[in-house]
Write a structure and sequence with these properties.
By secondary structure, the protein is α/β, with parallel strands linked by helices. The chain has one domain (about 1-245): TIM Barrel, CATH 3.20.20.140. It has helices at about 20-30, 45-55, 90-95, 115-125, 125-130, 150-155, 185-195, 210-225, and strands at about 1-10, 35-40, 60-70, 70-75, 100-105, 135-140, 160-165, 180, 200-205, 255-260, 275. Strands 7-6-5-4-3-2-1-8-9 form a nine-stranded mixed β-sheet, sandwiched between helices. Strands 10-11 form a two-stranded antiparallel ribbon. It is globular, with a radius of gyration of 17 Å. Bound molecules: zinc ion (2 copies). The site of one zinc ion (ZN) has 5 residues, from loops.
Amino acid sequence: MGLADLHIHTIYSWDGTCDVKAVLKRAAELGLDVIAITDHNEIRGGLEAQDLAPVYGVEVIPGSEVSTAEGHLLALFIQHPIPKGLSLEETLRRVADLGGCAVAAHPAARGMNSLTPEAIRRALAHPDLARILVGVEAFNAGLLHTRSNSTAQALADTLPVARVGSSDAHMFWMIGAGATLFPGRSAQDLRQALEARQTQPVSGQSFPPAEPADGMADALRAARGGLDCREPRAGPSPGLGAVIEGGEYGGLGATAKPLPPNPFLSPPHLQPRATFHVPVPGIR
Ligand SMILES: [Zn+2]
Ligand SMILES: [Zn+2]
């Protein structure tokens, strides 16, 4: 079985805090086989990560979290950006034109510009769009309201789509906090699993959140073992609200560069504190 985190932001997102190399390094350390870089209405982070990926031993799916007129949609396996603000139907057609597939990000989640169950069902009623909208996030580790995961799981159970787990990481220590288990190991295996509805969401969240590095790797290892697969559970989440202080972190040798306040982000607890740069041998 393979493990993928299909929803990761980098500094190419207006609210991202983690550069591409740091994402790849962290994903490799966690043993993730595949990651998707899904910056808001951007593709550059995904393309940069795809170029660098072989050095890290992680396969990258270039993607984008597209702000459709009806809510956020993960466009995966694309090489070009998709304009924001289009209808869900038109956005899905653009994804199809680019040879990609799509997953509904944090469906029905409160406060997060999410697709409604009605919008998702309307799209799935079109056979040609149903071939593109292959999954929904039944577990998103970055929710503002963690109870929205229960809503998403209940929704996913009623839809003929793959169930995906994602971190929605905007900070490097959140990578892998949600993941998707799939038969095989490669990005192509994952795509087949999505289209065949054979994926399973898992949680890599660790408690307490002060020790994410070890706990998350253990949780993901357990998930890969299959027998001890942890279903995501409701409860307290480190989420985006947890605080990162600058300086050395987690034994990765990461250095944190403080960021100025982001005027687009309120309340204050959502303000990213720093950009992380993780040194990698042989790579500047
Ligand atoms: Zn989103
Ligand atoms: Zn996101």
